[in-house]
Amino acid sequence: MPTSPQPRRAQLDKKPPVEKKERRALLWDILKKLAVFAKPYRLLIIATLALTALGSFTAQVNAFVLRYAVDTLTEVATLAEPWEAGVRMLTIISAVLLTKEILSIFISFGQRFFGEKIRISLSRDLSQKIIERILTYRMAFYTSSENDSGKLQTRIDYGVSSLTSLVQNFFIDMLPLFANAIVALIIMFSTNFWIGLVGLIIIPIYFFISQKQAKRLQGFRRQMRGFREAKSGLVISLINSISVVKSFVRESIEAEKHLAIQKEMTDNQLRIRSIGFVYDAIKTFIEQIGVVVIILLTAYFVLQGEMTIGMILFHVMLFQNVAAPIRQLHRIYDQINNALTYAEGFFDILEDDSQVESIAGISSDNLKGHIELKNVDFTYPNGTQALKDVSFTIKPNRITALVGLSGAGKSTIINLLVKFYAPDAGTICLDGHDLTDCDTHELRQRIGLVLQSNHIFSGTISENIRYGDMNASNDDIIVAAKKASIHEQIMSLAEGYESTAKSLSGGQQQRIALARMFLKDPPIVFLDEPTASLDAIASQQVKKSLDLIKKDRTVIMVSHNIAQIIDADDLVVIENGEVVETGTHEVLYAQRGKYFEIFSAMSDSLNLDKISQTINS
Do 581 and 588 meet the contact criterion of CB atoms below 8 Å apart? Predict the structure, then answer.
């Protein structure tokens, strides 16, 4: 039963912390890479920056209005008839604040809308780019343990989300606050140097505390990434193995595995939150000290007659504008660290040139199908050696069967012939050309592959068959379905060819895959156990379609089916990754070697004597 290793903190935090200079270099590198994706939206970025600058000035209006209100009210209160002056003051204040609010609504909407549009567009572009990229990668990339479906999905999803969150926080949340802080600080210095100095001094203190907070949380965030990848892999493994889990009644064991990860994730998250609460309290305390110092300094200057009473509230509000973005510095560090943690893995996938398939090469327009393997060795990425010094020839327009026990290396040979993998040593020649030099796309366009279990896509039957030729007409699809002996069954469905393909049985889905192959009409066909998982009747129906596929084509077949092996023109017997015999059925059977042993075992498993007695009785 498949099991998923439970993550441990020590295992997940193996990677040593990156030094400060290295992290800065890494951040700068990521920003440069992100800038490439942001370049098409430079006009939106300029508009966002312009609105942000404008909004930073309107944000200071309240401080000026409050100062004006306090100072004016102080003077008005001393008048014998204060009402007329008071009404005039309130009218001015109301008009200014109302105008400011109207402007702020439009400025804030534009700034947030443009920022959000940048974020959404970047998210789309990043997601599309990495999908386009990994589609160009070799099969070895997908079979690596580092890139199982759960881990790969997590790295992509969190990579995109962390990068776009960084953009969102910068353009929508943090940029306006920092612009406000700069303008507020300039105004504070313009009114009084010492007041401005207090506002300025708090900035490095906040930076220092936020940096300490980010450094403290760095290891916990890296652990969280490992937990998420492990959890995603466990869930996918559980879904794929659900029949095994239920048949062995191991639901409680699988639930315990999931609970173990959840507990460690919970502990990690609580630790992150508790550390954040402590540092937030420290920042709040320092900010309050700054407010007290501002009040004391301004009061001193008021008593000295250098300032009005309204300047006290004026400076306090400006100081709040300075402190507000600094108070949120930990969010910036959080986003930066998330970006560094996940974007590093994201860009590792995106920029892995070593995984890209070699596409361009010699044209395969006039493909005949003469294939020759010379001293081929191959080892899978996990270290399993599958082929050792394999040499044999496949003749064009003939049926060649690869015969051997499970794990002998038969399917591996097909994977090499389709260029899913490249041999470690030796050469594979196609019509006299090294397979490595052949154009991969053209080659695969002219090769058909029918597996034991062919993938059926979500969608209609018609769409699945048309996958063999995207330009095929409905009539072409029907002809292909008839050749695959599935047309009548399709027409018996309520929606015919528009029925959902996923609802078909295994045998019907296999014939849909064969219809897809007939539509493609390739000169070379690889058959890898195409009837192994089907019942006798479905196997018989599929065999009729396979007989049509084999006609006038070069066919390489892997099968444990006696009937299909006997039909082959040539046989290649493989044992433990090595070719031990080649020849026709009659010749190899007469040699009484490995083929004779395999064939006899197949015959015995079918109980041919009993079958013969039944038929003859």
Answer: yes
Separation CA 504–CA 104 (nearest Å): 59
Q: Which of 85-99, 183-197, 317-331 has the lowest mean pLDDT?
A: 317-331
Q: Which two tokens stand for residue 40?
A: 């098409």
H-assigned helices in 241-250? 242-247
Q: From CA 568, how far away is CA 577, in angstroms rounded? A: 21
Separation between Cα atoms, residue 563 and residue 454, nearest integer Å: 22
CA 154/CA 355 separation, integer angstroms: 19
The CB-side HSE value for 235 (13 A sphere, CA atoms) comes to 12
Place of tokens 């997590």: 154
Element (H, E) at 375: strand 371-379
The one-letter amino acid code at 534 reads L
Quick check: 225 pLDDT over 70?
no
Give the number of other CB atoms < 10 A from CB of residue 255.
12
Q: How many CB atoms lie within 10 A of CB 475?
A: 8
Which H helix or E strand runs over 392?
strand 385-394
Q: Which H or E run contains 554? A: strand 554-558
- Whether 433 and 427 have beta carbons less than 8 Å apart is answered as no
Please indicate, yes or no, whether the overall pTM of this predicted structure exceeds 0.70: no
Q: What is the pLDDT of residues 48-81, one digit of tens each?
A: 888 888 888 888 888 888 888 888 887 777 777 7
Give the relative orientation of helices 329-350 and 20-38 as an angle to the nearest 10 degrees. Answer: 70
How distant, in Å, are the alpha carbons of 57, 298, 308, 542 from that of 302?
26, 6, 6, 97
Edge-to-edge strand ranges of the sheet holding 433-434: 385-394, 371-379, 425-430, 433-434
401's tokens? 């069967």
What burial class does residue 331 get, using C-beta atoms within 10 Å of its C-beta: 0-12 exposed, 13-18 middle, 19+ buried? middle
Give CA–CA dist 67/335, Å, rounded.
37
Residue 143 burial (CB count, 10 A): 15
Among candidates 609, 602, 605, which has minimal Cα distance to 403?
602
Report the pLDDT averaged over residues 521-537: 76
391, pLDDT greater than 90: yes
Distance CA 55, CA 58 (A): 5
Torsions phi, psi of 457, nearest 5?
-80, 155
Pair of tokens at residue 515: 């219809």
The reported pLDDT for the residue numbered 155 is: 79
Cα–Cα distance list, 277 to 169, 173, 212, 323 (Å): 20, 21, 13, 18
In a 3-state reduction of DSSP, which class is residue 399?
strand
H or E stretch covering 290: helix 251-303
Element (H, E) at 205: helix 193-240
Tell me if 217 sits within 8 A of 206, measured CB to CB: no
Tokens 């193996």 correspond to 14
List, in order, residues 6 or more apart from 255 with CB less than 8 Å away: none
User: What's the Cα-to-Cα distance from 190 to each of 8, 184, 193, 201, 203, rounded to whole Å?
Assistant: 56, 10, 7, 16, 18
